[in-house]
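Exercise 3.2. Students should predict the tertiary structure of the chain below and write it as structure tokens, then compare their answer with the key that follows.

Predict this chain's 3D structure.
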Amino acid sequence: MSQPPGYRVDCPQPGHVQVHFTGAWTLHGDPPPSEALVTAFTAATAKLGFNCDALEAWDTRLLIFLKTILAAARERGIDVVLDGLPQGARRMLALSEAVPEQVGLGPGRHEWLLPRIGRQTLRLLEQWREIATFIGEIILALWALLTGKRPFKPRDFFAFVQNCGVESLPIVSLIAVLVGVILSFVGAVQLQMFGAQIYVANLVGLGMVLEMGALMSGVIIAGRIGAAYAAQLGTMQVNEEIDALRTMGISPVGFLVLPRMLALMLMLPLLCIYADVMGILGGSIIGVSMLDLSLVEYLEQTRKTLHLSQCGQGLLKSSVFGVLIGFAGCLRGMQCGRSALAVGEATTSAVVTSIVLIVVSDSIITYFLYR
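Answer key:
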């Protein structure tokens, strides 16, 4: 049967305290308190040693006791010799001292409401300062472009145009056609009750041109292009490529951000027009197949309904969406940290920020246009 944990203290030499551990120092036993050992430290104590010849077994109970004693000894400037401890215990103690304690994660450390509000306010002000600085750098890069300094390569710009435009046509086509089908089907269910099936063309045409064409193409581009911009620039931050550009005297905003934003601002209105056409064709599928309308009759009713000013509203919204998507994606990419986790967070933040800006700006533009 194991003996209960215990220790005794002796002084083999003046100023030298020796601790002899006895019994089984495990979690199943109740060790004596450490205060008696701490009180044995006097002003003349210069060295602390250990002896474990009578130690039967040990686990974390012994390590916790040793951590308390070692902290008290080092506070008094006592030299600690660990040679008498088991090799495993010495290794665990060295490992515990090699990893620093993380501040703010321990129990009982509660942050009050007022300091939290102050810290969040300072963080918000810092974010607004970064946004203002980023906008200023974009304006300077755009001014340099207008004055003929050309901060980026034309081939890079056309590569972004191709990525934003031609390569986005399949997904825009699919979503626009399905949105047109949904609008047409929802309108057909109600209009058939009054024998006004022909006005399905009005519903689909106005819905696509005024709202859904610009909105759906903006959301698609936010998820496809905005996220890609944030991931590209974030990866360049991790690889220190942006720092290399600054070292060579090249503006990262003019070289990386401006061509991406200009490509989006140019191509998103064209994608909006394409989405409008595909949505109207999608609505015609329901009009021809379910409502017994001819294709010529459907398209003629759509032509009578739409006006050039209404098409201009959708183009205006899509142009604003392109600027906002490019701004949000590039901003989050430039703010990215230096790790793979930071790249993922920047990508997610870019998509969320882009969609929120799209919805908010759409409601504001619609309100002022109808006023």
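Discussion points: The first helix runs from residue 35 to 39. DSSP finds twelve helices and four strands in the chain.
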